[in-house]
Amino acid sequence: MMLYFITFREARVLLKSRDLALINVDLMKTGKKIRVRVSKDYVEFPDGSRVKKEIIKRIAEDEGNVYFVRDGEVFKAAIAGEHFYKLVPTIPPTIEINGIRMHRTKGTDPLKDTIAKVNTVKPREGEVVLDTCMGLGYTAIESAKRGARVITIEKDPNVIELAKINPWSRELFESPKIKILQGDSFDLIKKFEDESFDVIIHDPPRFSLAGELYSEEFYMEMFRVLKPGGRLFHYVGNPGKRYRGLDLQKGVMERLRRVGFMKVRRVQEALGVFALKPSLE
Fold first, then answer.
1. Residue 75 C-alpha from the chain's centroid
2. CA-to-CA distance for 154 and 122, rounded, in angstroms?
């Protein structure tokens, strides 16, 4: 089923065009553009889908949402339920839950943010990576591109549904190197055997939303499932530090050391903490 993605950027191109427009419709995942016919009242996509110009005008004014056209109808890439989830038209998109973005976007973008995190642990060919909080899967995809096998966990089925829609997440569901587990990392990690992973990338929601994923109990499980010499990156961010003098990273580092990690250090460019499990040598 063909989906044509439109953000305010493509909508503005369509409104400026006469007769024919060339636009990208995969949220800039590729540089490919398609021809869209433009008339006084409609735009028409290659599959014959026609969208009223008045809808295109509304999209052009909305810089905070992603839309897609399917079978002639226009949908917002969003899910409303107990929480409100949506794709945000950054390049690549991030996901926003109740107004909180899941990637850093100020002064960077979700892809650069992902690469900064993955570069701290440098997964290699043949290694096994545990990605504790999948989100849109950019960390898992980047790790798999480097040759690692990845097990990635996502608690929220709504997040998985948005990942299925997002063109930038396609490799999650296509790569033979990536396995997705739906569930809570706090519980699922207990089912893994000792020393199962070479690398863990732990990118949890903020502490106020998932404090158990910052607990010493969870850190003990991460230590257990890492192989000797295994590397950990733990995204922490710096919530509250600017205004209340809090240092969440300091508390994380102290708990990681208590459960046995060594060479624990801040990684400022990725707003997180690196740690190493001692080797047997």
1. 21
2. 22
Q: What's the structural domain count of the chain?
A: 2
Across 141-172, b (16+ Cβ under 10 Å) vs e yields: bbbbebebbbbbbbbbebbbebbebbbbbbbb
Same domain for 158 and 231, yes or no, is yes
Q: Is 134 exposed, middle or buried (0-12, 13-18, 19+ CB in 10 A)?
A: buried
Residue owning tokens 């899910």:
79
Q: What percentage of the chain's residues is helix, strand, coil (to nearest 5)?
A: 30, 30, 40
Q: What would the two tokens of residue 230 be?
A: 């295994």
Q: In whole angstroms, what is the distance from residue 246 CA to residue 243 CA?
A: 8
Q: How confident is the model at residue 239 (pLDDT cuts 50, 70, 90)?
A: low
Can you tell me which residue has the tokens 């949908």? 75
- Residue-level pLDDT at 242: 46
Residue 99 forms part of a structural domain: no
Beta bridge partners, 75, equal: 68
Q: Is residue 92 part of a domain?
A: no
Picking from 170, 185, 25, 158, the residue whose alpha carbon sits closest to that of residue 89 is 25
Nearest residue to 230 (alpha-carbon basis) of 180, 176, 186, 280: 280
Per-residue pLDDT at 245 exceeds 60: no
What sections of 5-109 are H helices per DSSP? 8-16, 53-60
Q: Are 225 and 197 in contact (CB under 8 A)?
A: yes
Kindly state the tokens that stand for 200. 């863990």
Statement to judge: residues 247 and 155 lie in one domain = yes
**β-strand pairing of 67-70 with 4-6:** antiparallel
Candidates 261, 189, 187, 276; CA nearest to 230 is 276
